[in-house]
Structures are given as C-alpha cells and as structure tokens.
Write the structure tokens for this entry.
Amino acid sequence: MAKKGLAWECECGNIEFGTYPPEECTQCQAIDSFIKVPEDELEDRLAENVLANRHGGDEEDDDE
C-alpha cells in the first residue's frame, strides 16, 4: 500500500495521509484531533477502519 506522507488518525478512527496532520477531520469535523499512526500499526488500523466502514461504522445499532 503506497500512500504519500505520514499516516494520521483522528479520534473517530478516520485515517488521513500527509506530511502534516489535517486541521479538521473530514468525517467528524473535529479540530486538531489527529495523532500520528506508528508505521508498525498502520496496516492493523487501516483494516479496522475498513471493517468499521463495511458495518456502517456504528456498533451500537443493536438496540433496534
């Protein structure tokens, strides 16, 4: 997987790539909420992100 720049993860789980962390998350609109993802954890985080998106991203829908 060849993405450009560093990987940054928001508190909501959104992962973005770039030299610097984004100021605002495109998913949850949080400001300054990104932390650098260590390279050795990136593959696992991306897999978690894909699985969460595949299931709608909301694990608390069981109440319906």
Summary: Helices lie at 39-54. The chain has one domain: 6-56.
